[in-house]
Amino acid sequence: MKITVIGVGNMGSAIIKGLGNSKKFTLSAMNPVNPRVSKLADTLKFELVNTNADVAELAPDVVILTTPAPVTVAVAKELAVLNDHTIFISAAAGISHNDLRAVLPNKIIANIIPNTPVEVNAGTIGLALPREITADDISTIMTVLDSLGDVIEVPEQQLDIIGVVGGCGPAFVDVMMDAMSDAAVKHGLDRQTAYQVVASMVKGTGTLAYDSQLAPALLRDQVTSPGGTTIKGVEALEKNGFRYAIMDAVNKATGEK
Ligand SMILES: NC(=O)C1=CN([C@@H]2O[C@H](COP(=O)(O)OP(=O)(O)OC[C@H]3O[C@@H](n4cnc5c(N)ncnc54)[C@H](O)[C@@H]3O)[C@@H](O)[C@H]2O)C=CC1
Ligand SMILES: O=C(O)[C@@H]1CCC=N1
Where is the Pyrroline-5-carboxylate reductase catalytic N-terminal domain (predicted)? Predict the structure, then answer.
């Protein structure tokens, strides 16, 4: 299957690396001239073109749009010349199926919100499929997305909130990991060991929650030994409004005032 990624920034690079790891696809990309992207193409050995007009020659089966949201509809319009069997998967946050349908009237279009862990095939990918789509096209889309991580299909109106929790969430967790690492350094751990411990702890905590399907509050209760150290830390989190800070981060990232 031939896949072309349009816009090789943070998200586009993560997707190309993840797809490259799976070794299942023939990859190519389009990005305006940029030495960083040329270097990535050389390293990962994918074909790179610098204009949308050149994408037709690549004849992709699947196009993944990872351009900045404000230019995505204009970019899609330039790609309307592609074969009508081309499947478009758009990762642009806030750009709806209808926005794209208006400029790609005859194409198959799916909307996703991925996150940066797709780079290591451990992504969280919210997926909204159109109403009219064949089983074969769904199968093609799932072959691509399953190779990047966990795919969670939702109605399009839920894609924004999935996008905030799954897509923005890694940045919120990164802030917490950074703060925890600083505290560990304050208590004498060298920085590299601090990062390793914190990242391993987050990875294991996530895997346990995902595999057990237990409520986070129940998992927390398993750590808080009576009269122990953890409950003292949890009390400090409550005192400092940690839970509300997280809820407010999600609220604000949805665009809520
Ligand atoms: N960064 C993330 O974690 C996530 C990003 N997204 C979506 O991915 C898209 C890209 O976001 P980032 O990678 O963070 O931005 P970015 O700024 O890192 O990357 C954008 C890339 O698109 C290229 N570009 C700009 N104009 C272009 C055009 N007209 N045609 C082709 N390429 C063009 C830029 O040169 C750059 O390489 C956005 O629509 C965003 O909503 C979605 C989920 C998560
Ligand atoms: O910050 C953003 O707008 C994008 C969408 C989800 C994650 N990054």
Answer: 2-94
Model confidence at 119, pLDDT cuts 50, 70, 90, reads very high
CA-to-CA dists, residue 175 to 94, 129, 133, 249, angstroms: 24, 32, 40, 12
Going by their DSSP bridges, the two strands 87-90 and 62-65 should be labelled as parallel
Tens of pLDDT along 40-53? 999 999 999 999 99
Instruction: Indicate yes or no: pTM above 0.90.
Output: yes
List of E strands, the chain: 2-6, 26-30, 47-49, 62-65, 87-90, 108-113, 123-128, 149-153
Angle at which helix 216-223 crosses helix 191-212, to 10 degrees, equals 130
pLDDT at 130: 94
Could you tell me if 59 and 83 are in contact, meaning their C-beta atoms sit under 8 angstroms apart?
A: yes
- Ligand 2 pocket check for 169: Cβ under 6 Å: no
Q: Which atom of ligand 1 is nearest to the CA of 67?
A: 22
Tokens of residue 61, six digits:
């089966």
Packed helices 35-44 and 10-22: angle between N→C axes, nearest 10 degrees: 10
Catalogue all structural domains in the chain, each as residue range(s) with its CATH number. 2-153 (3.40.50.720), 162-253 (1.10.3730.10)
- Coil, strand, or helix at residue 33? coil
pLDDT tens by residue, 131-168: 999 999 999 999 999 999 999 999 999 999 999 999 99
User: pLDDT tens, 3-20?
Assistant: 999 999 999 999 999 999
Neighbouring-strand partners of residue 127: 112, 153
Q: Which ligand is nearest to the CA of 13?
A: 1
Closest Cα to atom 1 of ligand 2: 168
Place of tokens 């090789």: 8
CB 101 within 8 A of CB 131: no
